[in-house]
Amino acid sequence: MLTDMQVFNTQLKTAIVEKLTQRSDVFNAASGGAILLANASNMGDYKEESFWNNAASALRDIDAYAAQGAAGTTALSQDLLRTVKAMKGFGPLVWEPSQLTWIQSNPGEALSVISTSLSEAMLQAQCNRAIGVAVAGLANVANLTNDISATDPVTQAALNNTHALFGDKSPMLVSQVMTGATYHKLIGDALANSAQLFSSETVTVVDILGKRTVVTDSPALIAGGKNRVLCLTPGAVSIEPNNDFISNIETSNQQTRIETTYQSEWTENVGLKGFAWDEANGGASPVTAELETGTNWDQVYDDKNCAGTILIAQ
Length: 314
Known about the structure:
Number of strands: 15
Number of domains: 1
Largest sheet: 7 strands, mixed
Strand order of the largest sheet: 4-15-9-5-8-7-6
Strand content: 25-35%
Oligomer: single chain
Structural class: alpha+beta
Distance between the termini: 58 Å
Radius of gyration: 24 Å
Number of helices: 8
Shape: globular
């Protein structure tokens, strides 16, 4: 019955949102808040936040015995942080109602399979999106990039040199993001006693030498045959689902057997700490390739207040 399908869809949506929220909360805490997966309700194509630029350059010496003269002025100015809204979809999934009735199976089993699969897929996609954006933005800033890919692999020394790009603010780098191969190489190089903080099918968070380390084989970390390690500050990158999750289930004829399909879509605002999405270059409603283009992210904070640093190695 139609009402049964509506009830099923409502239950499914609730289950997906609950599972994703639970997993996201655990992941946020485990990653030290460097990658934030948080619900929001952003309107429009972009979310903008203004801030005052640092006016420290107005500080100057004064010679008390020098002749009077005009003092150079420093203008107070503002800049903008800008996140961008991107869209995702899932499905359509298709199954035949008779598949369930034939084996006298409970529809709740389908609900569990779909909600678990989608919530896990959404978490993985959000994590990959965050990593891809961070790689693109940071690798586009020379002062935040330690590129040794022409000669050297990832080592503890190289990782330490990457932290050093933040100078006296290196303690602000609370989390590292690397592939499983890089993680195991560092373990093999005598890093021991790593404590597991979070585990999903495709993402693990461990503690290495006092820094939380997200271990996942995200495509952006291994693109072009190079190994990348992100060293991130709190709130470095954010993915904000906008509470606009829409789903639909419908049953249709015109096939040999009756078919049921499920489809859903939603939007997420993507933000990178210290950077503003470039409207002119990147445009509205970007897809993954555009989000992972470094020139689409404009640096608006000074280096040591940005999202972090990146190591690029063999």
